[in-house]
Design goal:
The protein contains 18 helices and 6 strands. The structure holds s-citryldethia Coenzyme A.
Length: 428
């Protein structure tokens, strides 16, 4: 049965079809609104606007539900691996053993970056923020592999571009860290799986062989799963809109990396640790900082709290909070920041300001504490987020291309000057 909404304007009523998704979400399709009524819609920040139909990730913000291709994040975090989840997102199904081995091997074949890329790293200042390095080098992959710029490429060529990116992103990210700390770069080794290889490239030193700790590798693999996709968030929407112009995959993902960098988005994990350290330095007076977060005249916000979609607990935050305790215990790390984080959470969740606005801890609130315990420096936290989100960005880009979606080009309502007469400079 046809489902529709009616808009009445200037005495006329317009019927707009209503689309229902598989999880019963409903959307009014406004494709004919302007031609029928002359109206467009206005929705700053797209808080109530759907950009696409997608079969990749489902969020229920009210219930705190997150599913990748229908699988609950709790199951995937506990039972799956980042390579399995990457295959699930990119190919649309959980792989069997043969498919997983082939997926893994295809990625392992491309972990090396072209030796000319070393010149980029040598040119960066040693304190260069790794996000700036990663974003630039991911985009520059399109110059090393110019065939990736061809919009009319075959499926095989697209998959080769994807495998190259999945393989080289950990190497680029780890080398950005080595540049930050001034240590010699470590090459990838195909003997190690994804998370272990990344940690080895990060922390192995000529003077001190890095000893892999199974608990650390597993914790990192789970963190990558938890960050792998999150439907139409700011950086994913950026990847989609850049890709919609038929810009190549590397450039589209590079745009996603820089969008993620913002402290209101993926940069929040770095901002949370800096906030906790500031509170600790200030004597740990949690109540004072909660008041600052509530004060409209104070620019301070409780980083790692609140979410555009979740008006309940971010399911990822719950999983990471528990993993925090496990990892710190396993590694015998005592981090006073986790106590400050827990008391901040406790005070905030009992405060009307946060309750009325449905502000809960999000994925970034506890993740930095684990990264810190794993020995990853603050400046690398958002790179870790990007590494996890990579298969999600790729799958969303693929879906947009596969659906032949039109170039993204929103409209506006103009509120500037009208009919200004040009006056020569002598008379201004
Ligand atoms: C991520 O979209 C995704 O899916 C993102 C992400 C992903 O996986 O891709 O989940 C990853 O980006 C998580 C969010 C990380 N950012 C932060 O932790 C930064 C702190 N949070 C806020 O800046 C904010 O909550 C946002 C940006 C996350 C969401 O902002 P919205 O949806 O635009 O909501 P808003 O800013 O309009 O806030 C609504 C109200 C406002 O108060 P009033 O004007 O109604 O009085 O809540 C207040 C805000 O001032 N508020 C906060 C707050 N977050 C919102 N007040 C204090 N501290 C906060 N953190």
């Amino acid at each position: 049965m046809e489902d529709f909404a009616e808009v009445t304007y200037n005495g006329k009523t317009f019927k707009l079809p209503v689309t229902t998704g598989t999880e019963n979400e409903k959307a009014m399709d406004i494709a004919t609104l302007r031609s029928a009524s002359g109206l467009i819609t206005l929705d700053s920040g797209f808080k109530n606007t759907g950009a696409t139909k997608s079969s990749i990730t489902f969020l229920d913000g009210e219930k705190g539900i997150l599913k990748y291709r229908g699988y609950a994040i709790e199951d995937l975090a506990e039972k799956s691996s980042f390579m399995e989840v990457s295959h699930l997102l990119i190919h649309g199904h959980l792989p069997n053993k043969t498919e997983l081995e082939s997926f893994n091997n295809n990625i392992k074949k491309h972990t090396l970056v072209h030796e000319d890329m070393r010149k980029f790293f040598d040119a960066y200042p040693s304190k260069a923020h790794p996000m700036g390095v990663v974003a630039s080098l991911v985009c520059s992959l399109s110059t090393f592999y110019p065939e990736s710029q061809n919009p009319n490429r075959s499926k095989e060529e697209t998959m080769l571009t994807i495998y190259r990116l999945m393989g080289k992103m950990p190497t680029i990210s780890a080398w950005a860290y080595k540049n930050l700390v001034g240590h010699p770069r470590v090459y990838p080794t195909n003997k190690l799986d994804y998370a272990a290889n990344f940690l080895n490239m990060m922390f192995d030193l000529p003077s001190q062989k890095y000893e892999l700790n199974a608990a650390v590798v597993k914790a990192l693999d789970m963190l990558l799963i938890l960050h792998a996709d999150h439907e139409q968030n700011c950086s994913t929407s950026t990847v989609r809109i850049v890709g919609s112009s038929q810009a190549n995959l590397y450039s589209s993902i590079s745009a996603g990396v820089v969008a993620l960098w913002g402290p209101l988005h993926g940069g929040a994990n770095q901002a949370v640790i800096e906030m906790l350290e500031k509170i600790q330095k200030d004597g740990g007076n949690v109540e004072k900082w909660i008041q600052k977060a509530k004060d409209k005249n104070d620019p301070f916000r409780l980083m790692g709290f609140g979410h555009r979609v979740y008006k309940n607990f971010d399911p990822r935050a719950k999983i990471i909070k528990k993993a925090c305790d496990d990892v710190l215990k396993e590694l015998g790390v005592q981090d006073p920041l986790i106590d400050i984080a827990k008391s901040l959470e406790e005070v905030a969740l009992s405060d009307d300001y946060f309750k009325e606005r449905n502000l809960y801890p999000n994925v970034d609130f506890y993740s930095g504490i684990i990264y810190k315990a794993l020995g990853i420096p603050t400046e690398m936290f958002t790179v870790m987020f990007a590494l996890g989100r990579l298969p999600g960005w790729i799958s969303q880009w693929q879906e947009m291309i596969g659906n032949n979606e039109p170039i993204g080009r929103p409209r506006q309502i103009y509120i500037g000057d009208i009919d200004k007469k040009y006056v020569p400079i002598e008379k201004r």
